[in-house]
Amino acid sequence: MGMGNRMRAPYGRETRRWAAVLKMLCPRCRQARVFKELFKMHRECPRCGLKFEREPGYFLGAMYISYGLGAGLVLAGMALLRLFTDLSFHWVFGIMVALLWLATPWIFRYSRVLFMYTERGFFGGGD
Ligand SMILES: [Zn+2]
C-alpha cells in the first residue's frame, strides 16, 4: 500500500490527459469532442459549455504549434527516408510535400487542441 498507490496516481492522470489530447476532447470536461467537422470546431463544448475560442484571434497562438508540428514531421520524415531508402533528394522532397499536405488537417486540429490545453494550464498545474 502507500507507496504503490502514490506512484501510480499521477502517472494515470498524465496518461488520461494525453489520451484526451489524442482524442481531441474538451480540455475542461474531457467528455465531448472539440471538432464537429474536419476543420470546424464547436463554438463551445457541447457538454460543459466551455467557450473554446476565448477571444477573436485566440487561435493565432496555435500557429506556432502547427509550424512546430509541421517542421517536426518533415524533418523526421526526411531523416527516416534518407536513412532507410536510397531515394534521391527530389523524391524525398516530393514525398514530404505530399505527406505534409495529407497531414494538414491533423496538424491544424492537433495544434488547436494542444494550444488550448497548454494555454489553459491543463499541462502541469491546473486540473
Ligand atoms: Zn467540456
The number of E-state strands comes to: 0
Shape: elongated
Number of domains: 1
Please report which band the strand proportion falls in: under 5%, 5-15%, 15-25%, 25-35%, 35-45% or over 45%.
under 5%
Number of H/I helices: 3
Quaternary structure annotation = single chain
Q: How many strands, which pairing sense, and closed or not: the largest β-sheet?
A: none
Bound molecule kinds, no repeats: zinc ion
Q: What is the radius of gyration computed over CA atoms, rounded to a whole number of angstroms?
A: 18 Å
- The end-to-end distance, rounded to whole angstroms, is 25 Å
Key terms:
elongated; 3 helices; mainly alpha; 127 residues; binds zinc ion; disordered N terminus
